[in-house]
What we know:
Blueprint: H1 2-28, E1 32-36, H2 37-43, H3 45-86, H4 88-141, E2 146-150, H5 166-180, H6 187-191
Parallel strand pairs: 1-2
Amino acid sequence: MKKMFLMAAAALVMFSCNKEEGKTAASAGFKTAYVDIQKISEDYEEFKDLESKLKIKQEELGRGLAQKAQQWKLDYAEAQQLSASKGPQWSQLKGQELQKREQDIAAEQQTLGKQMQDEVLAQNDSVSKKIKKHIEAYGKKNGYDYIYSTSDVSSIIYAKDGYNITDQILKELNDNYKSTRPAEPAKEEKKK
Length: 192
């Protein structure tokens, strides 16, 4: 009972100290804001371009693999039709060959999947670092003491809308990216 009372008293003292610290921080004029990282990841042009490029690359890499898989299916169907007329020894050898090709296709698919995953992670990490540096520079330039982030796993449960600087950060990021992004070819050149 004494321990519980002491713990409650200690908690009360800590709470009152934190309350006083909060008053001091507020009176000192700390400038804080937060950024919605989820919104930035959805609306940042560089992320969108990166996603498009990676999707195109995945389709290109997958095209060759899909052709191999389709050819394997055709060969398998043909082997099933010929197995009765060619005999059990031929069927067994052909089955081993087809099984080996199927395993090779599966291994290639796994390798390509890992390669794409590694590339996506590396690209996302690079862009995330760029965003973080930009937010840090924005905070210094605009005199913020703290800039918090919010996303699906958020440490901010509530904040006034006035503290949300996501749109300003996003606009600057997109403006900076557009100024460094190579120009897209004209529509007429794309048709060629």
